[in-house]
Amino acid sequence: MKSEQATRIALGGVFSALCLLIMFLSSIVPFSSFAMPMLAGAMLTVVVIENGEKTAWLVFVTVAVLSLFIVPDLDSKLLFISFFGYYSILKPRIEKISSKYWQRVLKFLIFNIAMIIGYYITLHFFGLAAAAESSDVLGKYSPAIMLLGVNFTFWMYDYLLSRYIALYICWFKPRFLRR
């Protein structure tokens, strides 16, 4: 029993460090403010599979709080905290719904609410509203066009995350984590 608990704690610590490292890379690797939070969130699926939701939520909270202090890139922090960090934990629950249609509706609803709230937090709490208006090329339709683009990105992310989970369970785990 103690060995199993120690394993959970160790795995949670290792994945917290890995996610935090990936989040920090968003400030080093150019144009990765969107990709690194996605990758860090995908790492949490392993924690969900191996240790369950409770440990995954602890890892998410740990990475979210530490990234507020360590990660310089504001966009990646906000994306991880507002959606990509917890989506990997919610995904298995959402996919337990029997109807594929309602699964998709719920996934896109959660995503769009998170993106809209994140957009307004970025604009109004961080003082970027004036800068966004002055550099707006597409006019008043710019937020809608951006939302359409990120919805396509989310659709691809969800598909690839499902493939990643299947690859982990069917290929990686049996070969490298024989228990």
What does this molecule look like?
The chain is mainly α and 179 residues long. The protein has seven helices and no strands. The protein has helices spanning 2-25, 35-51, 53-70, 74-94, 100-125, 129-134, 142-176. The longest helix has 35 residues, at 142-176. The two termini are 15 Å apart. The mean pLDDT is 88.
Show the helix and strand layout.
Blueprint: H1 2-25, H2 35-51, H3 53-70, H4 74-94, H5 100-125, H6 129-134, H7 142-176
Helix pairs in contact: 1-2, 1-3, 2-3, 2-4, 2-7, 3-4, 4-5, 5-7
Query: What about the largest sheet?
Result: none
- Return the average pLDDT rounded to an integer: 88
How much helical structure, as a percent, in the residues?
A: over 70%
Order of helices and strands: HHHHHHH
Strand content: under 5%
Low-confidence stretches: none
Q: Kindly name the structural category.
A: mainly alpha
- The CA-CA distance between the termini, in Å, is 15 Å
Q: Helix count?
A: 7
- Rg is 18 Å
Shape call: globular
User: What is the count of β-strands?
Assistant: 0
Describe the structure in brief.
This protein is mainly α and 179 residues long. It contains 7 helices and no strands. Helix 2 (35-51) packs across helix 7 (142-176).
Tag the structure with descriptive keywords.
single chain, 179 residues, mainly alpha, 7 helices, 82% helix
